[in-house]
């Protein structure tokens, strides 16, 4: 099913998309209790969703993106200096710590250096547990419960004046947010949403690990990234998100009786969008199982072309508000990774499509020979201006 065949309920008066599919009851409880949290923006529709989503868009687009990328570059360079003695490190774990350290600095969340590994482990556990049962799932539940309680306390201290936060920081903005009725979020819901700022940023560790996998399989990509070609770095980031699997699908509930391609969809049915299928559909992508960043060279992407983080308008729909951050972090970190001199010891680099979310089995072990070369600073990214397309 192509993404433009699903129209999420945006609650926008006069929109033809109103009323077909909504998200309010679509997320199963195991996903809520690990990945997104109860009371999160993901469970809202209509005006409540738009007001809450606007808060995320204010933080995760525009100048805030460049600031987070700068913090991440500093954190990566600090970490990479400790890898340069030839010892083996697991890139997935190291990238998660880099991203956790950086996003907390950027968000204004007080965090001691000694606390970084445990927080990084909890943030990745929330993501790692949403698509499974057993120990991974229960680790994710416990991690979310632990970190919601931690941030609830911090927000309480900020609100009662015991603590302060940098003006305009994510910590400050989320703690002070008011819902569509003008009421402040309760402290627990604010904690949920603050986690939904920092947790997806830490999840970019999956894509950083995929980047290392791609550079290992297709080493010819390394030189173009090393050169600092910004256009190639962006195309590489897009192809990573298209080619490698992460979330296999997104879902919604049919609000009324619908039909699609002759198939009847009764009201209340769970409708799943096959993200991996669309990103590998030969009708949409030439040679879809070939890794080729060149397919994105000079290509302006429509709102329904590349959908690893959802489709449509991020301001009014359920497309991930952190997509610009994901792309910008990948642009910066792929260049740093390409400029890092390292060996790849024997290990299991298989990527199982039975695992959700998946990644190279070993987490990508590397042995760095010397410190990374710092790339030049990137210009702030531009907001997406293309409008949703109606055809594929």
Descriptive account of the structure:
With 392 residues, the protein is mainly alpha-helical. 46% of the residues lie in helices and 7% in strands. The chain contains 13 helices and eight strands. The chain has helices at residues 29-36, 46-60, 63-83, 91-107, 116-128, 134-159, 170-176, 187-202, 204-217, 220-226, 230-243, 275-279, 323-338; strands at 21-22, 88-90, 249-254, 258-260, 263-265, 270-274, 342-343, 365-368. The strands form three sheets. The chain has a three-stranded antiparallel sheet with strand order 1-3-6. A hairpin with a 2-residue loop joins strand 4 and strand 5. The radius of gyration is 20 Å and the shape is globular.
Topology:
Elements: E1 21-22, H1 29-36, H2 46-60, H3 63-83, E2 88-90, H4 91-107, H5 116-128, H6 134-159, H7 170-176, H8 187-202, H9 204-217, H10 220-226, H11 230-243, E3 249-254, E4 258-260, E5 263-265, E6 270-274, H12 275-279, H13 323-338, E7 342-343, E8 365-368
Antiparallel strand pairs: 1-3, 2-8, 3-6, 4-5, 7-8
Helix pairs in contact: 1-6, 3-4, 3-13, 4-5, 4-8, 4-9, 5-6, 5-8, 6-8, 7-8, 9-13, 10-13, 11-13
């Amino acid at each position: 099913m192509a993404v433009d065949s699903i129209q999420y309920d945006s609650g926008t008066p006069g929109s033809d998309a109103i009323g077909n599919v909504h998200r309010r009851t679509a997320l199963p409880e195991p996903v809520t209790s690990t990945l997104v949290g109860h009371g999160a923006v993901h469970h809202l529709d209509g005006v409540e969703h738009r007001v809450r989503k606007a808060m995320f868009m204010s933080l995760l687009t525009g100048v805030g993106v460049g600031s987070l990328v700068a913090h991440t570059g500093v954190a990566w360079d600090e970490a990479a200096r400790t890898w340069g003695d030839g010892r083996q490190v697991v890139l997935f774990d190291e990238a998660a710590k880099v991203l956790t350290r950086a996003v907390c600095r950027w968000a204004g969340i007080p965090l001691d250096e000694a606390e970084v590994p445990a927080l990084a482990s909890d943030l990745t556990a929330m993501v790692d547990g949403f698509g499974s049962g057993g120990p991974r799932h229960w680790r994710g539940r416990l991690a979310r419960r632990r970190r919601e309680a931690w941030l609830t306390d911090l927000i309480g201290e900020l609100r009662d004046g015991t603590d302060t936060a940098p003006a305009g920081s994510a910590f400050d903005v989320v703690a002070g947010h008011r819902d569509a009725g003008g009421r402040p979020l309760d402290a627990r819901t604010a904690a949920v949403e603050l986690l939904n700022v920092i947790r997806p940023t830490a999840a970019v560790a999956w894509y950083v690990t995929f980047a290392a996998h791609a550079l290992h399989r297709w080493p010819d990509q390394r030189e173009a990234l090393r050169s600092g070609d910004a256009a190639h770095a962006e195309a590489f980031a897009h192809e990573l998100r298209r080619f490698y699997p992460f979330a296999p699908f997104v879902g919604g509930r049919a609000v009324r009786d619908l039909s699609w391609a002759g198939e009847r969809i009764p009201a209340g049915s769970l409708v799943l969008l096959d993200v991996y299928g669309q990103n590998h559909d030969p009708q949409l992508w030439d040679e879809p199982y070939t890794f080729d960043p060149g397919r994105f060279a000079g290509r302006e992407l429509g709102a329904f072309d590349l959908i690893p983080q959802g489709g449509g308008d991020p301001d009014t729909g359920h497309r991930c508000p952190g997509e610009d951050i994901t792309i910008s972090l990948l642009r910066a970190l792929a260049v740093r990774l390409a400029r890092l001199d390292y060996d790849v010891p024997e290990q299991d680099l298989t990527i199982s499509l039975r695992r959700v979310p998946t990644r190279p089995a070993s987490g990508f072990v590397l042995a760095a020979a010397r410190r990374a070369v710092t790339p030049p600073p990137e210009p702030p990214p531009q907001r997406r201006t293309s409008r949703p397309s109606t055809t594929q």
